[in-house]
Specification:
This protein is α+β, with helices and mostly antiparallel strands. Helix content is 26%, strand content 25%. The chain is built from eleven helices and 23 strands. The strands form six sheets. Strands 14-15-18-13-21-19-20 form a seven-stranded mixed sheet. The radius of gyration is 24 Å and the shape is globular. The protein starts with a strand and ends with a helix.
């Protein structure tokens, strides 16, 4: 009999080999009765900085003859059968098309290829190797490739991130996503760590694995191939146009364009695809010394080899808005992430080791459609663009940076202090109060003061903010029905973060699988 046992506590200096002893003790059996122990979840309990411990959930096999008393922490493990997808019958005459190679597009393509649909995936940017060279060149020279950058290219915006695999959604497809990452060669600990991450360096290896799988299953991937039009006849999709001149006949398009494909959003609006304004968040990147965060979170155990670089997640409701940290990157850098000329956009990135000097996180305030000043479905997108260009102008083409103490006092920083900006492009001392609307800056100031009481040192005067962080999520939702199909165009399947149905690598990948399942349920293979 296999049991699942929760809340097994192990001290920070204990060895995982002691898990079986504590498991047996909790079950009331001999160690020799416990076979095939498997870690299901591992999390850090740092509520008491003087007694940090690890909390485990495990599975273990016990001989059926040994009596076990069940309780809230001990229950029989029931193996969930793999979900079967019924194949559809509606005839198709052309291969399905997927637009975008972020997590949503890649996992949609992978699933469809596994079921014999031979999809074609089009990506406007480069493969990850060429994309990395283009990004490095932008960071060194300021010369932006508007088609292949931190936002566009193989892997989507998440390729230059921390590679976080955390999510707030509760969906069995999450395990399917993690299995693919594990099979690519990533460490097994992503299957059980409470906050798994793989880093931008490891993520590139995952992309190569997924690409090989799609191609070996009969799919195709084409780079430097941007959707520039869609063909619709009587409310039904019949094809797409790639790079303005190549027509691809198809009855099925998975639209996984990401949250920054502004020209594509405008094309969809002109085609009367049903879209609505969506709330998102705007702010800056904030940087502290990683050592400060380690000490604030782990106390005397800061820098313990089992703990690694400390993280944080902070939020506070202030009035009718929420101020919160987002996409926190321990031991990382702030990256130049623009996808349009004459714009400044920031994001955060960490490698697997998380061993850089600074910790950085977005510090953002929620915005709603009422803030955009227009009922245009793309008003949020234009609001983003306005602030990104204003940041470019205020910084003289460089990213505006400011010490937190100066920001709260409302004065321009004259020079940098002890915290050196890690931004991958050029920076200019500025006053970010002159860039963002007052409701955002006042929310950020209140948030910093509140967060300083939650995380000692968060309000450090010398810490650095870099503007602006605008691409937290899509400002648009492309409306779809319960079968993931556009509510006014048959055959068009909006998907992932750009369509407004995900936020982060895991949820986007899950949505890609969900959409592909809807297609498999509806259509037959060629």
């Amino acid at each position: 009999m296999i049991y699942e046992i929760n809340n097994i506590k192990l001290s920070i200096d204990s060895n995982n080999s002691e898990l079986v002893v504590l498991t047996a003790l909790k079950l009331g059996v001999n160690v020799s009765d416990c076979k095939n122990l498997k870690i299901i979840k591992e999390s850090i309990d740092a509520r008491n900085k003087n007694n940090i411990s690890f909390i485990y959930t495990v599975q273990v096999e016990v001989d059926g003859e040994v009596p076990i008393t069940l309780c809230s922490d001990i229950k029989p493990f029931v193996l969930q059968s793999k979900k079967l997808i019924s194949l559809g019958t509606e005839k198709i005459f052309n291969r399905p098309v997927i637009i975008g190679s972020g997590p949503a597009g890649l996992f949609a393509a992978l699933k469809l290829s596994e079921y014999g649909y031979s999809p074609i995936l089009f990506e406007r940017g480069d493969c990850v190797e060429d994309r990395t060279r283009a990004v490095d060149n932008y960071w060194k020279t300021g010369i932006l490739d508007v088609e292949s950058n931190v936002q566009f290219g193989e892997g989507g915006a998440g390729t230059f991130s921390d590679g976080k695999l955390t999510t707030r959604i509760n969906d069995e497809r999450c395990n399917e996503v993690l299995d693919v990452f594990r099979d690519s060669g990533v460490s097994d600990d992503i299957l059980y760590k409470a906050k798994p991450h793989i880093g931008t360096d490891k993520l590139k290896d995952v992309l190569a694995y997924i690409k090989r799988k799609i191609i070996s299953n009969g799919g195709d991937i084409r780079f430097r191939s941007k959707i520039t039009d869609i063909k619709i006849v009587n409310g039904k999709l019949v094809g797409v146009v790639i790079n303005e001149n190549e027509i691809i006949d198809t009855e099925i398009v998975v639209l996984a364009i990401g949250h920054s494909a502004r020209d594509t959003f405008e094309m969809l609006k002109n085609k009367n695809i049903q879209m609505t304004r969506k709330a998102f968040s705007i702010g800056v990147r904030i940087e502290h010394p990683q050592e400060l965060i380690n000490k604030a979170q782990f106390g005397k155990f800061a820098n313990h080899p089992r703990l690694g670089a400390a993280e944080y997640q902070l939020f506070k409701k202030i009035g009718d808005r929420t101020v919160y940290s987002f996409c926190m990157c321990p031991g990382g850098v702030v990256v130049a992430a623009a996808s349009e000329e004459n714009s400044i956009v920031t994001n955060g990135m960490s490698e697997y080791a998380r061993d850089r000097m600074n910790a950085n996180s977005a510090l953002v305030v929620s915005v709603t459609p009422d803030d955009y000043g227009s009922n245009d479905p793309l008003a949020g997108m234009y609001f983003q663009r306005l602030l990104e260009r204003k940041a470019f102008d205020v910084g003289g083409g460089a990213a505006p940076v400011q010490k937190v103490g100066d920001f709260i006092a409302g004065r321009k920083s004259i020079k940098i202090g002890s915290v050196i900006p890690s931004y991958t492009g050029s920076t200019a001392c500025s006053d970010i109060n002159n860039i963002l609307p007052e409701f955002i800056t006042s929310g950020m100031k209140d948030g910093i003061i509140q967060f300083n009481s939650m995380l000692k040192g968060f309000g450090l005067n010398e810490s650095i903010i870099t503007g602006v962080e605008t691409r937290t999520s899509s400002p648009v939702r492309i409306e779809r029905d319960e079968y993931c199909q556009s509510i006014n165009i048959n055959g068009l399947f909006p998907c992932g973060e750009g369509a407004g149905y995900a936020g982060g690598i895991m949820s986007a990948a899950v949505d890609g699988i969900r959409v592909s399942e809807c297609i498999i349920n509806k259509f037959s293979t060629l």
